[in-house]
Amino acid sequence: MENHKQINNTHLLFFAGFLYFFAGCAQPPPPQPETPPLPEEPEITAKPALMVEPEPASELKQEIIVLPPIIVQDTIHKEIVLPPITIQDTVHEEIVLPKYNRVIVQDTIHKEIVLPPVIVQDTIHKEIVLPPIIVQDTIHEEIVLPPIIVQDTIHKEIVLPPITIQDTVHVEYVVFPGSSTSTDDFSYLSDLQFLYPCEGVTLPEEPRLLPNAPRSYRHGIHRGIDFVANYSSEVRAVASGTVIRADHHYEEFNPAFREELLAEAAAIGRTPSDVFNNILVGQSVIIDHGTELVTGKRLISIYAHLSHIDSDIQVGSTVVQGQQLGLSGNSGTKPATLGGKSGAHLHFELIIQDAEGERYLGQELTVEEVKVLLERLFIE
Question: What's the pTM?
Answer without folding.
Answer: 0.55
